[in-house]
Specification:
single chain; alpha/beta; Rossmann fold; 3 domains; 14 helices; 20% strand
């Protein structure tokens, strides 16, 4: 009853309500001859003898402890059409006839075979929730269109990454680099494939930005404004052999060469800049300098990732600017290779994504946000997959909107209440109730977007291996 081409309400036979649940997949035999696969997204039970706020004999009987009659009781469920079954799954364009028969799938049947029909290349991940033999198909062609994983703390994001996404990428011959922000979610599980930040030589321009951040940009309000002091410092970092110097020699050499440049500057700010330089160098710590003195360059990191096929960058104990600087250096190198028309065949899995591309980026985050957008744009053509993991979707707890628009596949786990509005935009049109999403068990995700061959989010789970 109340059917359209995309939704229908189905009345269940007596007793079948005990065997039917929200998220069950069903087969609709439309009276026009089509077979349609659908998903149950909402249930409703009505007993005409029991209506809250109204006095009826059935209510009075129940009030005295009696069991009300079920003769006027009915259960129905709302079905959302996934697609018409044919040579491939197609959008259903005909109204679902009100008297059409609806069947649930037995456990030994596998409706996933209908979703994968017609795909040129298909892989499989996890399983449809509640059915461990129903592996969910993936449209492989859309993997380089980038992936977002969203779930609140404890929702299972890192488990999904370790047990589903990384194995999928490896199966499809993508090598993977994981940026492990906390050093706890990946590094302990892949010890032979892990390197630390101090091993890595970051790009000179990135090192300059990192040290500028540590020196509070010489006390200059906007470090992006062009001025003689910052320009002289960046020029020194680009052109000198500072990596071969000890800390004290570095400061002395920097001061000498920057003073020389500033002495040629006829600006009235030259003396002020010298004082700012001296104060900032006194504030700079040797530990901060050593953080940018690693020897393993970005090209070596990429080569090691291709050699080992999986490389974890453990970012534990490092400050945020250093973590961002390392990422920025590697990202710039990949961008240069793709701009040189080179296929990179690589996936970057970025945990704690709002640290790199927050709602309102500042300082180095402006650079990391911009380069993630650039990598997404180029990656679709040059075999680079970006995977962002985040506790939030949007706003203060989420990912920058311009970056988020590049994520064409999404996994939504249990969400934070602050994300109700944003999650509603993604899932409510498909009948998923947001209050249901708030209570999803750990390790359960709605799989949506381009990689999903169904035009509607599917509830998936997965087995933990090892």
């Amino acid at each position: 009853s109340d059917s359209t081409e995309s939704t229908a309400r189905v009345i269940v036979f007596e007793g079948k309500e005990k065997e039917t649940s929200v998220e069950d997949l069903v087969l609709i035999k439309n009276m026009g001859g089509e077979e349609i696969i659908g998903v149950i997204r909402e249930g409703l039970g009505i007993n005409e003898a029991l209506k809250a706020g109204e006095y009826r004999p059935g209510v009075a009987y129940t009030k005295k402890g009696g069991v009300p009659s079920s003769s006027r009781e009915v259960f129905d469920f709302k079905i959302f059409s996934i697609g018409k079954i044919g040579d491939r799954l197609e959008q259903n364009l005909k109204v679902i006839a009100p008297r059409s028969e609806v069947y649930t799938f037995d456990r030994d049947e596998n409706p996933m075979k209908y979703l994968s029909k017609g795909l040129e290349e298909v892989a499989y991940i996890g399983y449809y929730a509640g059915h461990k033999t129903w592996r969910i198909p993936v449209n492989v062609a859309f993997i380089p269109y980038h992936i977002g994983v969203f779930a609140s703390t404890g929702g299972g994001k890192s488990y999904l990454a370790r047990h589903v996404l990384i194995p999928l990428l490896r199966e499809l011959k993508y090598d993977v680099i994981v940026f492990d922000w906390k050093g706890r979610d990946y590094s302990p599980y892949f010890e032979g494939n892990t390197i630390g930040l101090k091993d890595i030589a970051i790009d000179a321009s990135v090192a300059a930005d990192y040290l500028l951040d540590k020196m509070s940009f010489f006390g200059i309000s906007s470090y992006r404004d062009s001025n003689a002091l910052i320009n002289a410092f960046k020029e020194y970092m680009e052109d000198s052999e500072w990596r071969n110097l000890g800390f004290e020699d570095f400061k002395a050499d920097l001061k000498s060469k920057v003073e020389k440049v500033l002495s040629e500057d006829e600006s009235r700010y030259a003396k002020s800049y010298l004082r700012k330089l001296e104060r900032s160098l006194r504030r700079l710590k040797e530990a901060d300098f050593l953080e940018v003195c690693g020897r393993k360059e970005s090209k070596d990191i990429i080569a090691e990732a291709h050699e080992k096929h999986l490389l974890i960058i453990n970012m534990v104990k490092a400050a945020s600017p250093q973590k961002l600087s390392i990422f920025l250096s590697i990202a710039k190198y990949l961008k240069e290779r793709m701009e040189g028309d080179e296929n990179v065949n690589l996936a970057l899995l970025i945990d704690e994504a709002p640290q790199y591309a927050p709602f309102q980026p500042k300082g180095l985050q402006e650079d990391t946000t911009e380069i993630i957008k650039d990598l997404c744009a180029l990656g679709r053509s040059y075999g680079l997959v970006i995977i962002l993991l985040s506790q939030g979707i949007a706003g203060d707890i989420g990912i920058n909107a311009a970056v988020r628009r590049n994520l064409n596949t999404q996994f939504f786990g249990s969400i934070h209440p602050l994300d109700i509005e944003e999650a509603s935009k993604w899932l409510t049109p498909y009948g998923v109730k947001i209050e249901f999403l708030l209570r999803l068990p750990p390790g359960h995700f709605y799989f949506a977007g381009k990689m999903n061959p169904a035009p509607m989010p599917l509830l998936m789970s997965f087995e933990l291996k090892g």
